[in-house]
């Protein structure tokens, strides 16, 4: 390119180049409007060549050309440069004779131009940027007529008008692109939430569903849908009428216009299996004509809520509100003559804001008066700062009042036109309505910031978080600054790095991802949580956009794990061989479920003052035992901070426990065991964890009771075997006692039969394992009836009238029968003159208030206690047995074990004594 002439360089080159840059016109393709201008110029001036020439710092470039092949020339060949010095049409009748042009290569060589006429292209800022010119290869001494000159000027102004329009259109396209980007972000957020969209056109009756909605109704992508034939037909019969009524209520233009329903979709014509539970929300779009409202369409969203319904989880559903984006905004172009304070508006002021031309006062004051009062001072100060000479371009966002009294959010921008010395002459600009864009952006922000699930926008190429909503900050226990601008990599535990990196590579490669997955994150406080992640990515031009919606499902996962553990516990306890194995199964399951080394199940003796809640011997925990004996569930997050357990602090410190969860096992009001878990660090126990341990304790208690019942059954079976072995001995003893003092054979026969029948009844009670409540005296008398040979004073019973329950009656009958059997074999009933006395009494004492070692349990309350004594006399001398058989164990443990009492056997030489003490409540139990 050539160096520009000196006269061109002096004509405001910097301003000209800046103006050309604003129009963004250089090196653009041909356009009909400019081509038409050169054709008209050539025809008007009867010239073979016409050009729209734009001059830069080193070349002249032709936006439109006729009869001239080159698209540009160097400035050394430019004739148009001479036009820029003035502001009117330049005519050179003979280029070869004019000293300015006679050496120009276009004149001296091909194409041999001889005539030139050019009109300057002047911007509203009074900057000449080029020309509209005509040329001829023949000189024209007469130049142009006045009509031709005027026409050339008009065509030059037309070219400038086209340039202004072109610049305005480009600005509107940029705003439209911004609006489209907002729409894309909103759609990505909706897709990431797994939401479907429906649109019911009430005018045409057409129902439209997106792919997600079709999937929820089991409809293929190409299958036609309708309101009655598809929507209503595929609703569950129980939901159909209710949902139809809700839709019709929403379609009433006089109502609120909202549709909100939850229903089931089914396969086929409504009689098939359920596809999903669906939550639907919609908004009625109405057309207003004065006071008349006409319903146009119902638009809304559908969401699959099957998981929430199935799990019956109290999960607050995230509601996505979809808003319609209406028409694109219009630019209101204005030209403000600052000297005359006259403002000229184009038609868009009425089209976009409702202001009819006759209602508009064409002054700057009218415009400022229609700026929102809260914005007015700032707008006025800002624009006058530019006018006063502190800048060239102005822009401001504010609220502008429409003709109906409402306010529009606008972006107003203008450029100054200054005279010599910088005097402000005019400002030309355009006012763009941002109301719709701001509304959509506000909705998107509201959806993202108010959502009940975490939302994060990600740059897939770098995996840096661009935006994060407050819910995600809460889920990760982090500040927004910890997430935004930081790599997403740091939130994934290293154990999951391979899976994470694989997903990141797919996103960075531009793969379209629409997936729901479950993965772990490590919160800022170090805690691992499980989350359900809906991730959606999309390629848009060169950019890749990705949105992830994150829901904390740690509690859901934990609940699933606990439910699985309870199933495993049930299977294990069903086959457990005894209490030891029951305790081992419960301990292992609790440890695995809570990921704790110290968890288990331990038995507690009634009089125990210690607990075995760690490996090793029991340790004293008096405060803990006191609360457990009251039936309290202990869920202590920090043992060191619980003052009620301060007496046990040293014991817990010794076993390294800082948090405790314990559920007592109670039987007849007594503490018999503990199901527990403890942690070495403070730990808050979730309600679900407490419920889980309570459930484990309940199942363990049932298993222990079943094991005890099975042991009791085995005990009864052994006792039956023992009874059968003793049957002949008993029959022989009965016969011997019956016939010992016989004087009448018939009477002896009758007595013998009666005693054998009594023996049979005792065996009936034993074998049936059942019995009704009875008087204590009647139970004892019945058990001794077969040993009553009629000798005066042989059996003596004494004590208050007491009723005993079925369980106690059976156990007592068996024990008395066993004592009587031993007496018949070896004791008072084995010889004439032998005596047996049974007496009982009730006293109010502290049960087990004094143990055999002399210690007292002051924690027990006073309650009624029964003392029953069996005493033999007049029999053979007694010697303590060298071994204890089944009968002896039955005497010592059968009755006392059944009613929660204690038995003492005394083998004095003069006769055996058996003393039994038991709480009255144990004898009265009906179970």
Helix share bin: 25-40%
Q: Mind describing the biggest β-sheet?
A: 6 strands, antiparallel
Question: What percentage of amino acids are in beta strands?
Answer: 25-35%
Structural class computed from helices and strand pairing: alpha+beta
Please give the alpha-carbon distance between the first and last residues: 114 Å
On the 0 to 100 scale, the average pLDDT is 82
Judging from the principal axes of the Cα atoms, what is the shape?
A: rod-shaped
Q: Write down how many β-strands occur, each being a DSSP E stretch of 2 or more residues.
A: 34
Q: Pick out the low-confidence regions.
A: 312-329, 765-772, 849-859
Rg is 52 Å
Q: Strand order, main sheet: write it out.
A: 3-2-1-6-5-4
Helix count equals 26
Give a quick set of tags describing it.
927 residues, alpha+beta, 5-stranded antiparallel β-sheet, 26 helices, rod-shaped
Q: Can you tell me about this structure?
A:
This protein has a six-stranded antiparallel beta sheet with strand order 3-2-1-6-5-4. With 927 residues, it is of the alpha+beta class. A hairpin with a 5-residue loop joins strand 2 (59-66) and strand 3 (72-74). Helix 3 (32-45) runs antiparallel to helix 5, helix 5 packs parallel to helix 13 and helix 24 runs antiparallel to helix 25 (886-899). It is rod-shaped, with a radius of gyration of 52 Å. Residues 312-329, 765-772 and 849-859 have low confidence and may be disordered. It is 39% helix and 27% strand.
């Amino acid at each position: 390119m050539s160096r520009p002439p000196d006269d061109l360089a002096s004509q405001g080159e910097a301003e000209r180049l800046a103006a050309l840059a604003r129009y963004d016109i250089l090196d653009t393709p041909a356009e009909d409007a400019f081509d038409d201008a050169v054709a008209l110029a050539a025809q008007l001036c009867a010239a073979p060549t016409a050009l729209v020439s734009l001059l830069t710092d080193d070349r002249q470039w032709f936006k439109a050309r006729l009869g001239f092949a080159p698209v540009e020339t160097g400035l050394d060949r430019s004739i148009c440069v001479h036009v820029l010095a003035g502001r009117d049409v330049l005519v050179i009748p003979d280029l070869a004779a004019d000293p300015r042009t006679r050496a120009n290569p276009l004149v001296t060589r091909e194409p041999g131009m001889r005539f030139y006429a050019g009109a300057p292209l002047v911007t509203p800022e009074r900057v000449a940027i080029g020309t509209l010119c005509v040329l001829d290869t023949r000189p024209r001494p007469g130049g142009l007529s006045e009509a031709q000159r005027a026409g050339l000027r008009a065509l030059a102004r037309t070219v400038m008008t086209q340039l202004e329009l072109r610049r305005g259109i480009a600005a509107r396209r940029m705003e439209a692109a911004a609006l489209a980007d907002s729409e894309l972000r909103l759609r990505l957020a909706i897709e990431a939430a797994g939401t479907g969209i429906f649109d019911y056109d009430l005018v045409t009756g057409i129902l439209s569903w997106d792919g997600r909605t079709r999937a929820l109704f089991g409809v293929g992508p190409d299958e036609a849908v309708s309101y009655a034939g598809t929507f209503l037909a595929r609703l569950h019969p129980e939901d159909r009428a209710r949902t139809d009524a809700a839709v019709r209520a929403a379609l009433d233009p006089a109502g609120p216009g909202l549709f909100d329903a939850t229903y089931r979709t089914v396969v086929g014509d409504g009689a098939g299996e359920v596809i999903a539970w669906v939550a639907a929300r919609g908004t009625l779009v109405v057309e207003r004509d004065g006071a008349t409202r006409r319903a146009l369409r119902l638009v809304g969203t559908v969401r699959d809520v099957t998981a929430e319904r199935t799990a019956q989880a109290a999960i607050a559903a995230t509601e996505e509100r979809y808003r319609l984006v209406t028409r694109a905004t219009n630019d209101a172009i204005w030209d403000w003559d600052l000297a005359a304070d006259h403002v000229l508006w184009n038609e868009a002021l009425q089209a976009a804001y409702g202001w009819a031309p006759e209602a508009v006062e064409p002054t700057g004051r009218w415009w400022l008066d229609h700026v929102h009062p809260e914005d007015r001072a700032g707008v006025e100060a800002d624009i006058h700062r530019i006018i006063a000479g502190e800048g060239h371009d102005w822009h401001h966002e504010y609220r502008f009042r429409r003709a109906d009294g409402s306010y529009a959010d606008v972006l107003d921008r203008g450029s100054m036109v200054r005279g010599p010395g910088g005097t402000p002459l005019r400002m030309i600009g355009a006012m763009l309505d941002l109301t719709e864009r701001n509304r959509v952006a506000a909705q998107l922000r509201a959806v993202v910031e108010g959502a009940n699930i975490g939302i994060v926008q990600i740059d897939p190429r770098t995996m840096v978080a661009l935006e994060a909503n407050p819910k995600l900050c809460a889920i990760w226990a982090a500040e927004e600054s910890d997430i935004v601008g930081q790599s997403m990599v740091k939130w994934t535990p290293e154990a999951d790095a391979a899976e994470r990196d694989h997903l990141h590579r797919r996103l960075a490669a531009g793969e379209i991802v629409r997936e729901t997955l479950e993965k772990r994150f490590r919160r800022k406080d170090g805690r691992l949580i499980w989350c359900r992640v809906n991730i959606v990515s999309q390629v848009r031009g060169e950019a890749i956009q990705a949105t992830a919606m994150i829901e904390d499902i740690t509690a859901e996962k934990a609940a699933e794990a606990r439910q699985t553990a309870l199933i495993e516990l049930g299977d294990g306890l069903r086959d457990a061989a005894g209490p030891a194995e029951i305790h081992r199964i419960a301990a292992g399951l609790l440890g695995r479920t809570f990921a704790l080394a110290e968890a288990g199940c331990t038995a507690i003796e009634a009089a125990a003052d210690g607990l075995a809640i760690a490996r090793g011997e029991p340790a004293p925990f008096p405060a803990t035992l006191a609360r457990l004996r009251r039936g309290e569930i202990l869920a202590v997050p920090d043992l060191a901070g619980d003052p009620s357990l301060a007496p046990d602090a040293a014991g817990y410190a010794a076993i390294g426990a800082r948090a405790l969860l314990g559920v007592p096992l109670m039987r007849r009001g007594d503490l018999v065991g503990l199901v527990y878990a403890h942690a070495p660090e403070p730990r808050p126990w979730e309600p679900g964890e407490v419920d889980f341990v309570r459930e484990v304790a309940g199942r363990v208690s049932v298993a222990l009771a079943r094991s005890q019942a099975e042991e009791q059954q085995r005990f009864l079976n052994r006792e039956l075997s023992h009874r059968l072995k003793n049957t002949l001995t008993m029959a022989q003893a009965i016969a011997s006692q019956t016939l010992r003092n016989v004087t009448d054979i018939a009477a002896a026969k009758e007595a013998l039969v009666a005693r054998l029948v009594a023996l049979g009844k005792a065996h009936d009670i034993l074998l049936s394992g059942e019995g009704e409540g009875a008087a204590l005296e009647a139970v004892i008398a019945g058990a001794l009836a077969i040993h009553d040979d009629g000798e005066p004073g042989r059996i003596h019973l004494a004590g208050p009238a007491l009723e005993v329950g079925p369980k106690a009656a059976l156990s007592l009958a068996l024990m008395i029968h066993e004592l009587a059997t031993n007496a018949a074999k070896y004791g008072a009933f084995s010889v004439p003159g032998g005596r047996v006395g049974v007496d009982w009494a009730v006293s109010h004492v502290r049960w087990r208030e004094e143990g055999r070692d002399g210690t007292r349990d002051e924690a027990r309350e006073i309650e009624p206690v029964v003392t029953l004594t069996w005493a033999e006399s007049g029999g053979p001398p007694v010697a303590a047995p060298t071994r204890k058989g089944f009968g002896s164990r039955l005497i010592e443990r059968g009755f006392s074990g059944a009613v929660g009492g204690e038995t003492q056997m005394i083998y004095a030489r003069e006769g055996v004594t058996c003393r039994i003490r038991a709480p009255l409540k144990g004898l009265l139990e009906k179970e």
